[in-house]
Amino acid sequence: MSARVEGAIGALYPFLDAQPTDIDAVLAAVARSTAEKVAEIVALRESLVAAHGQRLLDCAQRCAAAFRAGGTLFSFGNGGSSTDAQDVAQLFLHPPNAARPLPAISLTHDVALITALSNDVGFEVVFARQLAAFGRTGDIAVGLSTSGGSRNVVRAFEEAARRGMVTVGIAGYEGGRMAESQAVDHLFVVPSASVHRVQEAQTTVYHVLWELTQQALADER
Q1: 123-161 per-position pLDDT tens digit
Q2: Among 17, 37, 121, 130, which lies 20 to 30 A Cα-Cα from 101?
Q3: Are 35 and 188 spatial neighbours (Cβ–Cβ below 8 Å)?
Q4: Above pLDDT 70, what percent of the chain?
Q5: For 74, left (φ over 0), alpha (ψ -120 to 50), or beta?
């Protein structure tokens, strides 16, 4: 292994460095870094209450109305946001604690369909085409993007808006293209430049949205 490679590994992972390491110093640095990250995500999540509290309530009311009318939730995103989109669908469809199951589908789980559309038409349409086929007026489209700039997510919102669906965007940084789009009814931006912090806080956003939607449905009963 070259000295350059060894140096790079040592810089990223001190405990793998071939050179003698002060274990106590490494452990102290890890503990310090962990505490700083925990404080950062706690502060970020708390800030979302003031920024989005009432807007989450309003969005949950619209989602509850859509579900009462027989609507279905469609979720989508790329990469880590694809995993979050599947989590959103699972949360609504198969909720914990015997909560009310609600119809929800992730548009990211069908690999054959996504690769076919990407190969034959273009990656920008992998979600929009599915909404064109399955989406109906009154359904819900939930799109996630850490940057807010994913073109295929924005294209999906545009298709959803044309179909009269409720559109919910969850983004990071400053909102990106989602913040500029007229097709997003409810936008929740996590103001951080760290992808890790953004995705952690986005998880909080959609879990709160689910809880508030469940509460709105329960109150109607």
Answers
A1: 999 999 999 999 999 999 999 999 999 999 999 999 999
A2: 130
A3: no
A4: 80
A5: beta
Tokens describing residue 157: 């919102």
What does the pLDDT read at residue 21? 65
β-pairing, 186-190 vs 140-145, is: unpaired
Q: Which of the residue ranges 15-29, 135-149, 197-211 would you say has the lowest mean pLDDT?
A: 15-29
Q: Which residue in this structure is represented by tokens 């430049």? A: 193
In terms of DSSP H, where are the helices of 121-182? 128-134, 151-162, 176-180
Domains and CATH numbers, the chain: 51-220 (3.40.50.10490)
Q: Please report the beta strands in the chain, taking only residues with DSSP state E, as ranges in sequence order.
A: 73-76, 104-106, 140-145, 166-172, 186-190
Q: What is the pTM of this model?
A: 0.82
Q: How far apart are CA 213 and CA 221, in angstroms?
A: 13
Q: Are 156 and 102 in contact (CB under 8 A)?
A: no
Q: What is the mean pLDDT of the chain?
A: 87
Contacts (Cβ under 8 Å, ≥6 apart) of 27: none
**Nearest Cα residue to 114 out of 146, 152, 145, 87:** 152
Q: What is the DSSP string of 68-85?
A: HTT--EEEE-STHHHHHH
Tokens coding 84: 């979050």
Given phi > 0 = left and psi -120 to 50 = alpha, else beta, which region is 171?
beta
Residues 10/17, Cβ–Cβ less than 8 Å: yes
